[in-house]
From TrEMBL:
Gene3D superfamilies: CofD-like domain, CofD-like domains. This is 2-phospho-L-lactate transferase. The lineage of its organism: Bacteria, Bacillati, Actinomycetota, Actinomycetes, Micrococcales. Keywords: Magnesium, Transferase. Its EC number is 2.7.8.28. GO terms for molecular function: LPPG:FO 2-phospho-L-lactate transferase activity; magnesium ion binding. It is an enzyme of class 2 (transferase). PANTHER family: 2-PHOSPHO-L-LACTATE TRANSFERASE. It comes from Leifsonia tongyongensis.
Amino acid sequence: MTGITVLAGGVGGARFIRGLLGYLAEEQRSTDGPGSTVPVTVIANTGDDMWLTGLRICPDLDTIMYTLGGGVAEDQGWGRADETRRTSGEIAAYGAGWDWFTLGDLDLGTHIVRTDLLRSGRTLSEATEILARRWQPGVRLLPMSDNAVETNVRLAADIDEHRAGDLIHFEEWWVRYRAAAPATEFVQVGLEHAEAAPGVVEAIRDAEVVIIPPSNPVVSIGTILAIPGVRDALRDTDARVVGVSPIIGGRVVRGMADRCLDIVGVESTALGVGLLYGSRSVGGILDGWLVDETDAGVVADLQAAGIRASAHPLWMHDVPTTAAIAATALQTAGFRAAYPESLDRQTIADLGGTS
Ligand code: GDP
Ligand code: CA
């Protein structure tokens, strides 16, 4: 057993992992513990991926890579810092592309290189490894699958050129319609032919700790869990599996994950998501579940469902507060290197950076 494995979507996952790496580096510096020598593997959702104007776009992989590599537009949480939009203006002038989905000039560089690699026969795993050589994210970054598995949304009513019952790409529903177009279900197109990418099942099975960060439970984590072998690996691993609630006080914090939960009939609460994931003792995926301190009232219900739950501040305000959440997750998992009590806020703050 070795290392920490994290299943992640985009912004929520990336920010959590940045805090985790910050904690590990600080733990090593202040206690001479294993800290940043602990390998971290990230299994990223690729269900949001799509082809657009001839290019393969992988939103969650790129958000993780830019965030950990220091290139992210910090205020929006995705895309590149100091971005310009000249090329997408040109594409729009031809009436091509999707005018509601803007691609920055710097970001397009990534998509062009990735597409070139894919067209020359590399797998998405290989392309991701090559792109990550530039960004040095400090983790082993794996796509959940090398096969295209794209999350689609089935519309419940006519909207623009679409008819009720049509499937549209998740990104169109999310970005163009702000997740407000009535819908009946999510469909993972391509799932029937998909396998987990090389290393994914092993990274879960052989991990010392598995963390489910505060990512969208339906279209980020749920999509990864749908890949054949992933749930089985979570069930069979000797690692403890600990999750961090993306819902605080019945609110999604950022974004519109509550609309995704509505569609699958799950209440948008820390309890609802905890029970959706379920206890490993009854075939679910969680040993432990961190809820925000404002949700302390549901801890007993979660415990009754067989999940080791506890309440802590879960707002990822900046790297230090996120490092403290990561430390709590590791401690809950009984991780050998987790000594959060040895870290006062000032030493964590010395990590610098805000999010
Ligand atoms: P996406 O792919 O960019 O949508 O990002 P993810 O799937 O990784 O995560 C999105 C989720 O992160 C949102 O739905 C929020 O519920 C959650 N989130 C964002 N910021 C915070 C935070 O500060 N604390 C917690 N607990 N959750 C957060
Ligand atoms: Ca995403």
